[in-house]
């Protein structure tokens, strides 16, 4: 799974497994593993956020080099990864959400924030961010 997350090809994973004394990994096995990973990540990204109040929310983004899907050319491009971290009144932290997009534009931030709200995030008293223009303009 780690190899998949880091964009390593099926052939490279197969070569690594064989080098470690294994019999290799078929494409169908890699697909099965990745499907399980996609399911786990999907459940995390869509879980309800109404189990506890998060009066403080940190919002930030970073840019990572990722490989586009084959249908989008399969090229390595720089993409924005936005993250929301909630902090409870007692100081406990939880990653509330993350998403990947082409840039930190207003439309992308607005969709991300709306998804958090739709999943039950409410009662936010303070948002801490770097005041990126896309984020500042997103709440409307």
Question: In words, what does this structure look like?
Answer:
Helix content is 37%, strand content 26%. The radius of gyration is 18 Å and the shape is elongated. The chain has 2 domains: 2-46, no CATH class; 56-137, no CATH class. The mean pLDDT is 84. It has 5 helices and 4 strands; from the N terminus they run αααβββαβα. With 140 residues, it is of the alpha+beta class.
Summarize this entry quickly.
This protein is an alpha+beta fold and 140 residues long. Helix content is 37%, strand content 26%. The chain has a four-stranded mixed beta sheet with strand order 3-2-1-4.
Give the total of domains.
2
Uncertain residue ranges: none
Mean pLDDT, all residues: 84
Lateral strand order in the biggest sheet: 3-2-1-4
Shape, please?
elongated
Distance from first to last alpha carbon? 39 Å
Number of DSSP strands? 4
Radius of gyration from CA coordinates: 18 Å
Q: State the helical fraction.
A: 25-40%
- Alpha-beta content class: alpha+beta
Report the portion of residues in β strands.
Answer: 25-35%
The description of the largest β-sheet is: 4 strands, mixed
Tell me the number of helical segments per DSSP (H or I, 4 or more residues long).
5
